[in-house]
Specification:
Blueprint lengths: L2 H7 L11 H33 L11 H14 L7 H5 L2 E5 L7 H18 L4 H6 L6 H6 L1 E5 L4
Antiparallel strand pairs: 1-2
Helix pairs in contact: 2-3, 3-5
């Protein structure tokens, strides 16, 4: 990764790389979870037929199917070459690791799992952290070592 690209990740919070990132993240969240909800429907139909083939054993996955779909959706999109989910791309943001390495599938899953964990504990108040931190980072961004930037500044 070039030094020019890395410099955007460590730009001051008032710089163009981070302006409006927090509100764009909220909108990207809404778009992404609508897409996950839409993808859940064919996954549920597929699981129904797999359940028939496995004599009902696959039906045990129904309670966690939404989470399984979300894990693969975010792992493959945020951990892919675009470094952003479709919702993030529609809002013009991307995620990157602070050490300059590209996001991978497992880092994206860890980011998602920590988001779910902190959101279940602190509810949407987790977004308040972004108002008081530099680069608009949230708790799970600090723990995983990621930062969300505007993709038009990359």
């Amino acid at each position: 990764m070039s030094l020019e690209r890395e410099s955007h990740y460590f730009a001051p919070a008032s710089g163009p790389a981070y302006s409006g990132v927090l509100s764009r993240r909220v909108m990207a969240f809404v778009v992404d979870y609508l897409i996950v909800a839409i993808l859940w429907v064919p996954a549920a139909v597929l699981l129904f037929f797999i359940g028939i083939a496995t004599l009902g054993l696959a039906f045990l996955l129904y309670p966690v199917l939404y989470f399984i779909v979300a894990v693969f959706y975010f792992g493959l999109t945020m951990g892919g070459p675009a470094q952003a989910s479709p919702g993030m791309r529609s809002m013009g943001i991307a995620i990157a690791r602070t050490n300059g390495m590209p996001m991978d599938f497992f880092t994206a899953i860890a980011h998602l799992a920590l988001f779910w964990l902190f959101n279940s504990i602190v509810t949407p108040l987790i977004l308040l952290v972004g108002l008081f931190t530099d680069r608009k980072r949230l708790i799970h961004d600090f723990l995983v070592g990621t930062v969300v930037v505007r993709s038009d500044t990359l």
